[in-house]
Amino acid sequence: MTESQGSLSVRSAWRDVPPVLVRRFAALALDEVPALAQDILREIRAEYPGLPVVLDDSGEPMALIGIRRALEGFVQQIASAEGRPRYPLEVFQEFGRGEGLHGRSLDSLQAIYRLGVRLAWRRLAEIGQQIEIPPPAMYELAESGFEYLDGLVDQSVRGYAEAAARQAGERLRLQRKLMELLLSERRGESGSGAPADSGPGPGSGSHSGQRRPGVRSALDERAARVGWQLPERVAVGVLLRPAREAVAPAVGQGVLLDMETEQPRMVVPDPEAAGRPELLRRTMAGWSGAIGPPVPLADAAKSLRWAEAAVRLMERGLLPSGEVLHCTEHTEALVLLQPEELIEDLARRCLAPLAHCGPAHGRRLAETLLAWLETRGGAPEVAARLGVHPQTVRYRLRQIRELWGDEVDDPDRRFELELVLRARRLRGELGRVG
Hints:
Layout: H1 2-10, H2 12-15, H3 19-47, H4 62-79, H5 89-101, H6 106-130, H7 135-184, H8 187-190, H9 213-225, E1 233-240, E2 256-258, E3 265-269, H10 276-283, E4 288-291, E5 295-296, H11 300-315, E6 324-326, H12 331-337, H13 340-350, H14 359-375, H15 379-386, H16 390-404, H17 411-426
Parallel strand pairs: 4-6
Antiparallel strand pairs: 1-3, 1-4, 1-5, 2-3
Helix pairs in contact: 1-7, 3-4, 3-6, 5-7, 6-7, 7-9, 13-17, 14-15, 14-16, 14-17, 15-16
């Protein structure tokens, strides 16, 4: 750091040392640098045996070059009354990158530097004592040495941070590739329509829960590169951002998360494991979206389609928003509301007898018919469900039989009527009772 030179200039003890002694000190120290650098590296390797050995083009360890240059730079600095400290930037930045890429912490990096400084200072102190440099001047020299060390640490921390950012970016890229393969499998076979795919049809050459050997091999390889153990079952979620710059939810390392899409997606391994649903609820606080049903790993795309369908219904106000819901808790809505065109066509045919009734009266008859279909009870049971007088129910049931005739006694027609009436209730077109 620039303060290193400043500390020697402002304080008087070192400047009071006769120049001839300073030059002699510097000459002796420079003579010691090659052997001292070797000693320091040897001690560091003994203390940290896992330290990687990176060689330069000539085959010399980069760490040795860095130590030697750092020592020479410091000695040249204290011997000169001018100039700024010169750090071997590329060497120490590269050392910091190497520490980050090998998974070591900044604490271990700084511990290595402190060890090196302690060993170097021991030898410089011996030289100072040998040529009788006054102790106050040597104390100032020690302070300058630690300031110089701070500059070297800054360079290594910069390299460490660059490596960490690059490593995190590479992991995210590989994770997205893994999710792309996992979620795109067989999606093209079912198209982008309603998520009603129940598996490959006859003659498709594959069975649900299985993958072609080549695909499985690619999946294994990509999972291994991000350290993700392939689970037996997964659930896929689609999220709605609470804000454009929202910070990614802390879903944990086991959950794959892709924040690069407009609607972030995640793959939850072993979603039915004890405690997993509650953990997700806590970590997803403040987010909304949907998690598809648990499926075998090979069917992850199906879980994604149901989650996408649920999010579309949330955006239309047909499913609760403001939280991350589980599709398995909203099966009725997803089954009845998703194939909208088919349900509407069935509703036009099944509810045609109401076409000549006024809107309010038609709604009351539809609610009474649904209550009767759900209870299959008499007027008192239906009246209790609707909160009206039994006599009112008897009157409406007579009208219903006049409108539909014997169709209300046919099991298939009753099923269709209940289906379309439940769908209308889910859309808010009929009142909720019960």
